[in-house]
């Protein structure tokens, strides 16, 4: 009934404290645990309810009576403690103790049928309290988000000597707030006590592994003005479009008007919107344009 790790990558610890009991504490814990999981926002596949069934037999004859939701005295003096748990679609667990030599198939069948009626009644009352798991976990709970990336891109996310992954953690609140774990199959687990920092880390990782395509539009800061090594004349500007991806805006792609010097139009740190005009995957170069997003001159 618990969600798969890919959908809910948490370790779940349930504690049931029984303060007083005159019945089945395990079945009470089963029902209470279902309610607790749903209230905590755990996306369980089906709610589970449980009931403890008992049996009293007449040793002098074949007469017997099946009891529903047995109390302590009925458990102590009776001949059977038959616990049944399950959803509206079937039984998920049973556990039985008997004090007699055995149970007939008729008793077992009647017990399960009687238990189903009781379980459905209990489940109905539970769902009247909370009909489904909450849409999100508590705002105070640590956020664990799992995404899948191409295993060949793991090195890009980590960076040389862990430079990139440490940068992401630092920009998302530091180690006291966020942590990132990566499995060999490309599963990336982002944990954070701050939902916004978790979202930011995911966006940064997705940006790192994203493939840049011609025609896409990005916004990023100018990080460098490029000059020709021979003539020293400014020929373009480098724009950071993704956390680990940069592209160049040639001087001819800055504006529809003639530009004599790149630095007269663009400054380091200035945020600009650019369009991808070309991608050379072999050389790792991206051609960008600012003027492609400007209105065309009449």
Encode the helix/strand succession as letters: HEEHEEHEHHEEHEEEEE
Radius of gyration, CA atoms, in whole angstroms: 32 Å
CATH fold field value of the largest domain: Ribosomal Protein S5, domain 2
Structure summary, number of beta strands: 12
- Highest-level CATH class of the largest domain: Alpha Beta
CATH level-four homologous superfamily name of the largest domain: GHMP Kinase, N-terminal domain
What is the straight-line distance between the termini?
65 Å
The biggest sheet, with number of strands, parallel, antiparallel or mixed sense and barrel status, is: 5 strands, mixed, barrel
Total individual domains: 3
Estimated share of beta-strand residues: 25-35%
Percent in helix: 25-40%
Draw up the topology in text.
Layout: H1 25-39, E1 49-57, E2 64-68, H2 72-77, E3 80-87, E4 90-98, H3 105-129, E5 143-148, H4 154-158, H5 163-171, E6 178-182, E7 187-192, H6 195-209, E8 217-227, E9 234-242, E10 245-250, E11 271-280, E12 285-289
Fill in the keyword field for this structure:
OB fold (Dihydrolipoamide Acetyltransferase, E2P); Ribosomal Protein S8, Chain: A, domain 1; 298 residues; single chain; 4-stranded antiparallel beta sheet; Ribosomal Protein S5, domain 2; 6 helices; rod-shaped; 25% helix; 5-stranded mixed beta barrel; alpha+beta; transferase; 3 domains
Provide a concise account of the structure shown:
The chain has helices at residues 25-39, 72-77, 105-129, 154-158, 163-171, 195-209; strands spanning 49-57, 64-68, 80-87, 90-98, 143-148, 178-182, 187-192, 217-227, 234-242, 245-250, 271-280, 285-289.
